[in-house]
Amino acid sequence: MFLDHYFTATPAGIVISEKQGSDFAKHIAGDFNPIHDEASKRFCVPGDLLFALAVSRYGVRQHMQFRFTGMVGDGVALRFPAAVELVRTVTNEQGKSLLEMAFDGAGRSEEDFCAALIREYVAFSGQNFPHILVPLLADSGVMINPDRPLVIYESMALSFDTLDFNQPHLALSSSSLAVNGKRGDVQLNFDIHGASGKVGQGAKKLAIGGLLPYDEERMQVVIDAFVIRKETWTPGNG
Does 238 have pLDDT greater than 70? Predict the structure, then answer.
C-alpha cells in the first residue's frame, strides 16, 4: 500500500520517524502544522497517519471511533492489536496507551477501497487551517499563539449507512468552537458521499492551546506565512 513509505516495521513494533511523519503530513494530507515538521522540538506523528495505518490494517467498518490518548514522538515503537472488536488500544513498548480504537459493524478490506477513503479523509482533514479554523477563531474573538501554535487531534469518528459505494468525498456540514480560557475545543462535523450520494457522516475534535485575544493584523501575518510556506514547499526541504 502507498503507506509503506511512511512507517518501518520492526520486531518491537511499527516505527515512524520524524521524516516519515513529516512527509506524510505534507505529501498526503497537505498538513503544514509546524508540530509535524522534522526537527521540531515538539514533533509528533500526525494523527491522520495513525488513522491511516489502522484502516489499512483492519479495513473500513461501518462504525469507527478513534481517541488519541498520547502524543507519538520520533521513533516510538507502536504496538497495534492483532484485531479490533469493541475497544482496543495502540501502545508503546512500555504499554502506555496512545490511541484507543473501536470498530463495529460490517466491513470492507479491499486495498483500493481503503486507500481511497484514507486519501480523501486525510486530504479533508489537512484543510483545517486556515479555511475552517480561522473563521471560527475570529467569531469567538481569539487566535492561535503565533509564537507557539498548538493544534492537536483529540478524537474522530466515522459512521456509514452503507459500505456499497465508491469515489468517497467528504464535505464539512457544521463546525463549532468552545473557548475555555486559553484552550479551545473544536468540533468539525462532516458528511461522507459516494458517487451516488450521501453514505455516512463523521466528526472530528481538535484542541487548541495558548489562545490569545484576536488581532486581525497578527492573524493575517500567520495566515500569509502559512500560505507562503505551503506554496514554496518542495519534497526534501522539510
Answer: no
